[in-house]
Amino acid sequence: TGLVTLDSGYGNTAAYKSAITYLDGEQGILRYRGYPIEQLAERSTFLEVAYLLINGELPKVDELSTFKNEITQHTLVHEDVKNFFRGFPRDAHPMAMLSSVVSALSTFYQDSHNPFDEQQRHLSTIRLLAKLPTIAAYAYKKSIGHPFVYPRNDLGYVENFLRMTFSVPAQEYDLDPVVVSALDKLLILHADHEQNCSTSTVRLVGSSQANMFASISAGISALWGPLHGGANQSVLEMLEGIQANGGDVDSFIRKVKNKEDGVRLMGFGHRVYKSFDPRAKIIKAAAHDVLSALGKSDELLDIALKLEEHALSDEYFVSRNLYPNVDFYTGLIYRAMGFPTEMFTVLFALGRLPGWIAQWHEMIKEPGSRIGRPRQIYTGEVLRDFVPVEAR
Ligand code: CMC
Known about the structure:
Blueprint lengths: L20 E4 L4 E4 L2 E2 H7 L2 H10 L5 H12 L8 H7 L6 H15 L9 H27 L12 H10 L10 H14 L6 H10 L5 H13 L6 H14 L4 H9 L20 H16 L5 H14 L2 H5 L7 H11 L6 H22 L27
Antiparallel strand pairs: 1-2, 2-3
Helix pairs in contact: 1-8, 2-17, 3-6, 5-6, 5-10, 6-7, 6-17, 8-13, 8-17, 9-10, 9-17, 10-17, 11-14, 11-16, 13-16
Bound molecules: carboxymethyl coenzyme *A (CMC).
Carboxymethyl coenzyme *A (CMC) binds next to loops.
């Protein structure tokens, strides 16, 4: 009842109250549960941040060890899950495999279907955090035709994922501490970002009281799109395109400004940040550090730096407050670590998982929480009389 106002793309409509993430887009501030992202990226670990987002407080020593232990105990997926991967075409996009298999987890864990059972909510949380890296690594193994590698209990969260992804039975993968710590930091930076498209999707699906696996699977699908998490893949493809065109940054920028074929400068712009994305600042520094520590020079990094420099001094981008976002430099780091471009958005999903889970919990526990149900402004025919098919 009452006046319905149109707010295309939810530019100005708060659909939820939340105590998880604070974001000030004018000043470029991002905090999880009150802690500045810069401090968390520098001093915390991904599992600690996951605990913080989901439970509201940083864990004490024993809480963290219980949490890690529980996750370690659930990293295996049911052997039948492998059959899903056998059925997918070899060139399937890993994001499609990820969302499908996560959705399928609700067929293996039918005890998860009541979102009001607190114990089951906890179990689903642990299962998801534990199994997503295994599923992500399997998706990669499927794409290259390698055997699946089982998780190992003596390894940390990121180490386990890297090993499941890159080792083969014939040869162990040499875990490089630089790669482990850089990936851990990147996961922290992606862990939550208030009501972005995928998180709102998780909440909307969850608001119908669908189970956590179904809700998170929908979030993964939303993340896949190139305007959201898929941008990290698109950035790298854009940089490769410019490289193939002789590194001609000027003509690419011209194309973007003329909006030729809808071309955008991928990895730039944000709905909420109207100044620098604080995550991008940290990632830009990390890109330099990781590339030099791994002894890799990358012509694409030079192209990215040039693009950024041009855009930041160009009236088109300045007047629209377009700055580099989280996705602009991540792909270069992932590439240096050995991930193929198609896996980039999967890494974003691994990072965003605790945020999705935390927001799902917050919504389910909110007293008086209602099903999400946007309104619309109807623009169709007002009233017409039915005409039989032969008389049309
Ligand atoms: N390149 C060129 N022009 C742009 C860009 C861009 N990356 N982003 C926005 N614009 C222009 C747009 O054409 C419009 O211009 P005009 O006023 O002349 O029509 C104006 O800026 C406002 O754009 P908008 O589409 O209304 O802005 P939005 O808030 O709806 O979109 C966005 C936000 C992130 C989808 C958009 O900036 C974009 O498409 N960026 C490129 C994709 C990308 O990097 N996405 C990752 C976002 S951050 C992490 C994540 O969410 O996953």
